[in-house]
Design a protein that fits this description.
Elements: H1 2-36, H2 57-91
């Protein structure tokens, strides 16, 4: 009985070791297969656009001007508020 148990135990340990190594081997094989199948296929050849692309300077300048105006107004209100907070701390 003990010999049968030992044989079964050895078999189980061997199968368990195989079970633990198979996922690792599968993952390595999958990565290797993906590495071998790396290629680039050109679908359409490149072409030049009909109209050249250029930055919209007027839009950029307008957005920058409006943004800086709002930022200036915000900073003015912020500094006035900050002075009020400082004066309340000093008087308190």
């Amino acid at each position: 009985k003990m010999a049968e148990y030992t044989n079964l135990y050895i078999k189980v340990k061997g199968l368990q070791a195989k079970y633990e190594t198979l996922p690792k081997l599968y993952e390595e094989a999958r990565i290797e297969e993906q590495r071998e199948n790396l290629y680039v296929e050109v679908i359409d050849p490149p072409s030049l656009p009909d109209v050249p692309v250029k930055p919209k300077r007027t839009l950029i300048v307008a957005v920058a001007a409006v943004s800086s105006l709002f930022l200036g107004i915000f900073l003015a209100f912020f500094f006035v508020w900050l002075e009020g907070v400082k004066s309340r701390r000093v008087s308190a």
